[in-house]
Design goal:
It contains 10 helices and 17 strands. It has 410 residues and is of the alpha+beta class.
C-alpha cells in the first residue's frame, strides 16, 4: 500500500527504520529504493551554526548510486565455510547516476565534481564506473572534474573536508563515505538525505531508529526537518524550505539544541523554538539561499543498450569444492587448464604458495578454438563427474577487450 501511494503521489517523507543484522527481513530502505527505482541517493553535508565540530565551513554533496553494487543482495554459501557476494555494476546504471551528478552540479552552480572509486583493484566494476564518468565529463566543460581512490578520499575528508565540493560514487562506497561526511558536521542526527528517481522521490533522515530513547522526549528532529526542506525544494517550493531552514539555523545559533548536540532542550522545546522562529520569518524570504538536495526535479533519460559488435567465447572459470589444490584434468574437450586460484590468488601452476587454502578453488579453462556455449556445458558436465562445482563464469572478449581479470600472481 505504501509503495502504491508513493507511486501515485510521486513524493514521500520517510521516518527511520531498523534493519536486522545478519538475519531477519531485508532492508526496508533498500526495498523502497529498488521498488521505486530511486537510483540517486543525495546526501548534503553542511556545517550548522551552534554545532561544535572539528571542521568549520564544510559544504559538500555526495551523490551515491542507489540500486546496484553489492546491494543487489545476491549472496550464496558456496560451501559451509565460503560465502560469495556478486557485485553488479552496469553501464546504464553508471550513466544514470553520473549524468544526474553532473546535472545537479550544473543546477546548483557547483564547480567541481569528483569521482570516487577503487578501480586499481576492482578493474572491471569500478573501472566501468570511472570510464562512464570520464566520458560524461566531456559534455560538461564548465565543471572541473577528477577522480580519487575511496581510501584516499576518506583520508582527505578527515583532514581537509573544505577542499571538497561534490562527489559521485558507487553504492557501497557512497553508503560509507556519506556517513563519514555526516560526522564532519555533527553526526547522523543532522544529516538529511534524498532518494530520487525519474518519477518519484523519497526523502528521509538517514539515521536509524532509537528505541532506547523512545518516549523520553530526547530525539533530535534536525535530520528529518532538513530532509523535509530538501523535499520542498524538490517539488518547487524553495521559499517554504528556506523559511523553515532559516528558523532551524537561527534556533541553533541562539543556543537552543537537543542533548546530542550539547544542548539541554527536549524535543518539544527544540520544536517549539523552531516554530516560533518560523512565525517571525518573512512569508517570502529570498529563495536559493541554502544548498540542499535539489531546487527542482532532475530527470535523466534512460540510456539504450549498445551491444558489442564482436563477442568471442574463449573459455570458462569453474569453482569447485576440494580440500587442497584439486587434481583437475589438464584438458577437457577443446579446453586446457590454465590456472587454479584460491581466494583470488594463483596456486597452480608453480610452487606451493604457502597460503591459507579454503575448500573452494577457481579453475580456469581456455581455448584457441572456435567454441559455442554447448562446448562449455559439455566440459562442465565432464568435470562434474569427479568434482562438486557450484559456480561458473564464461570467459568472453568484447570488441577485442578481455571481459575477465587475472588472478593475483597469474
Amino acid at each position: 500500500e505504501t509503495i502504491d501511494l508513493v507511486h501515485q503521489y510521486g513524493i514521500a517523507l520517510k521516518g527511520p527504520t531498523t534493519t536486522p543484522v545478519a538475519g531477519g527481513h531485508k532492508s526496508v530502505n533498500v526495498t523502497i529504493r529498488k521498488a521505486l527505482d530511486l537510483y540517486a541517493n543525495v546526501r548534503p553535508s553542511r556545517s550548522l551554526p551552534g554545532v561544535s565540530t572539528r571542521y568549520p565551513g564544510v559544504n559538500l554533496i555526495i551523490i551515491r548510486e542507489n540500486i546496484e553494487d553489492t546491494y543487489g543482495g545476491i549472496e550464496h554459501m558456496q560451501t559451509k565455510d565460503v560465502a560469495q557476494c556478486l557485485r553488479l555494476i552496469t553501464r546504464q546504471g553508471c550513466q544514470k547516476i553520473v549524468r544526474f551528478a553532473f546535472e545537479m552540479a550544473r543546477q546548483q552552480h557547483r564547480t567541481r565534481l569528483l569521482c570516487v572509486h577503487k578501480a586499481n583493484i576492482m578493474k572491471m566494476t569500478d573501472g566501468l564506473f570511472l570510464e562512464v564518468f570520464r566520458e560524461t565529463a566531456a559534455q560538461y566543460p564548465e565543471i572541473t572534474t577528477g577522480d580519487m581512490m575511496v581510501d584516499n578520499a576518506c583520508m582527505q575528508l578527515v583532514t581537509n573536508p573544505q577542499g571538497f565540493d561534490m562527489m559521485v560514487m558507487p553504492n557501497l562506497f557512497g553508503d560509507i563515505v556519506s556517513d563519514l561526511a555526516a560526522g564532519l558536521v555533527g553526526g547522523l542526527g543532522v544529516a538529511p538525505g534524498g532518494n530520487i528517481g525519474d518519477n518519484c522521490a523519497v526523502f528521509e533522515a538517514v539515521h536509524g531508529s532509537a528505541p532506547d530513547i523512545a518516549g523520553l522526549n530526547r530525539a533530535n528532529p534536525t535530520a528529518i526537518l532538513l530532509s523535509a526542506c530538501a523535499m520542498l525544494r524538490h517539488i518547487g517550493l524553495p521559499a517554504h524550505a528556506d523559511r523553515i531552514e532559516k528558523a532551524l539555523r537561527d534556533t541553533m545559533e541562539g543556543g537552543t539544541k537537543t542533548g546530542d548536540l550539547g544542548g539541554k532542550a527536549t524535543t518539544t522545546e527544540f520544536t517549539d523554538a523552531i516554530c516560533a522562529e518560523v512565525e517571525k520569518a518573512p512569508r517570502r524570504p529570498t529563495t536559493g539561499v541554502f544548498d540542499s538536495v535539489a531546487e527542482s526535479c532532475i530527470v535523466v533519460p534512460d540510456f539504450p543498450r549498445v551491444p558489442a559488435q564482436q563477442r568471442k567465447l574463449v573459455g570458462f572459470d569453474i569453482f569447485v569444492e576440494h580440500v587442497g589444490i584439486p587434481p583437475m584434468p589438464h584438458e577437457v574437450g577443446p579446453f586446457k587448464l590454465i590456472m587454479i586460484s584460491n581466494r583470488g590468488t594463483k596456486v597452480w601452476p608453480g610452487d606451493d604458495p604457502g597460503i591459507l587454502l579454503v575448500d573452494v578453488h577457481r579453475c580456469r579453462y581456455q581455448t584457441q578454438a572456435d567454441i559455442k556455449q554447448e562446448d562449455v556445458m559439455a566440459a562442465i558436465q565432464e568435470i562434474g563427474k569427479s568434482f562438486a562445482w557450484m559456480h561458473v563464469e564464461k570467459l568472453q572478449i568484447f570488441d577485442g577487450k578481455e571481459g575477465f581479470t587475472k588472478a593475483q600472481g597469474q
